[in-house]
């Protein structure tokens, strides 16, 4: 998993062009539950974002913080082993 997460920006042309094999899950080995703090916060962050473009790192920071406060889950964010990764990232684009 990645250490301190650097938030990339949607205006970073290089970040939008590089391949990424990122994964963000609600839990490691512990049981994941439906309608969890992870799920609620993830949906809230995207639904209420004032920006047309939101980088995954921004979502990870907000969701991880909320999950830590509820003490339910420990979200995991990192690279998928065995897949090509050029240190790119994932962006959510509003419709």
In short:
The chain is of the alpha+beta class and 95 residues long. It is 33% helix and 15% strand.
Strand content: 5-15%
Query: Which H/E pattern describes the elements?
Result: HEHEHEE
Class based on secondary structure composition and strand pairing? alpha+beta
Proportion of helical residues: 25-40%
* Strand segment count: 4
Shape: globular
The neighbouring-strand order within the major sheet is 1-3
- Sheet of most strands: 2 strands, antiparallel
**Computed Rg:** 14 Å
Please characterize this protein's 3D structure.
- The chain starts with 12 loop residues before the first helix and ends with a strand.
- 16% of the residues are buried.
- Helix content is 33%, strand content 15%.
- Helix 2 (37-47) runs antiparallel to helix 3.
- The protein has 3 helices and 4 strands, in the order H-E-H-E-H-E-E.
- The strands form 2 sheets. A two-stranded antiparallel sheet has the order 1-3. It has a two-stranded antiparallel ribbon with strand order 2-4.
- The longest helix is centred in the middle third of the chain and has 15 residues, at 56-70.
- It is globular.
- The protein has helices at residues 13-17, 37-47, 56-70, and strands at residues 22-25, 53-55, 76-79, 91-93.
- The model has no long low-confidence stretch (mean pLDDT 84).
- By secondary structure, the protein is an alpha+beta fold.
